[in-house]
């Protein structure tokens, strides 16, 4: 981080609608607050497994609440998340490992593209309800985000490389080391200490801790 700027890391997976909400708010505030926002693509499945966490919708009452909560937040933050009851099954049935490896490959190649690329994955999965585990959908996302076909091809080849797999695993482990048990996990490095905030509804608190 530059002198006087607070480094804020956002650990996210595009399978998570709350991560999309947190991502959009932090992307807006990075231009207003004195922060360096660092996007950290990680794998939610790995975090759940390591911490023994379970998807919130497995508790029916919590699932009911989540539907309303995400709809309200989508409206409030003007993020086009569309969610209905069937989406919980859809999430359980989709692996975002390939998508998160593709995003990780981008982070290792041209990190400037991370924001538009990640956003397109969320739009495709959470607005257009497409299965982003399919290679042709990953290609469509890359096109939408403005990637050249050469770059897209390069990233697709990188997906299966040990370098990308290890990088995604390391980023996921880093989130766990900071205390993450779900996503989004936001870590603000302030006064020489990491401060973990879980979820997209703690951003006022984040602002308060870093003096914004």
TrEMBL record:
EC number: 2.5.1.18
Keyword field contains Transferase: yes
A family per Pfam: DSBA
CDD domains xrefs: DsbA_GSTK
Gene3D superfamilies on file: Glutaredoxin
Annotated Gene Ontology cellular component terms: mitochondrion; peroxisome
Source species, domain of life: Eukaryota
Extent of the signal sequence: none
GO MF terms, alphabetically ordered: glutathione peroxidase activity; glutathione transferase activity
Record keywords: Transferase
GO biological-process terms attached to the record: glutathione metabolic process
Domain DSBA-like thioredoxin positions: 8-209
Catalytic activity: RX + glutathione = an S-substituted glutathione + a halide anion + H(+)
Entry annotated with the keyword RNA-binding: no
Catalytic residues, chain numbering: 16 (nucleophile)
Family per record: Belongs to the GST superfamily. Kappa family.
The protein's name in its UniProt record: Glutathione S-transferase kappa 1
Species assigned in the record: Rissa tridactyla
Gene of this entry: Gstk1
């Amino acid at each position: 981080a530059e002198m006087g700027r607070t480094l804020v890391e956002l650990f996210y997976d595009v399978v998570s609608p709350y991560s999309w909400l947190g991502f959009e708010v932090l992307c807006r505030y990075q231009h207003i607050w004195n922060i360096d926002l660092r996007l950290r693509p990680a794998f939610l499945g790995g975090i759940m497994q390591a911490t023994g966490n379970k998807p919130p919708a497995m508790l029916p009452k919590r699932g009911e609440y989540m539907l309303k909560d995400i709809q309200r937040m989508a409206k409030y933050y003007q993020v086009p998340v569309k969610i209905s009851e069937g989406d919980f099954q859809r999430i359980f049935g989709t692996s975002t490992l390939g998508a998160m490896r593709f995003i990780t490959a981008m982070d290792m190649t041209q990190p400037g593209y991370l924001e538009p690329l990640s956003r397109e994955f969320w739009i495709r999965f959470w607005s257009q309800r497409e299965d982003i585990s399919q290679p042709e959908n990953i290609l469509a996302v890359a096109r939408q985000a403005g990637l050249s076909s050469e770059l897209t091809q390069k990233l697709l080849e990188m997906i299966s490389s040990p370098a990308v797999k290890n990088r995604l695993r390391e980023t996921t482990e880093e989130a766990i080391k900071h205390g993450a048990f779900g996503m989004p996990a936001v870590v603000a490095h302030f006064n020489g200490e990491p401060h973990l905030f879980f979820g997209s509804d703690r951003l006022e608190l984040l602002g308060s801790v870093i003096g914004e």
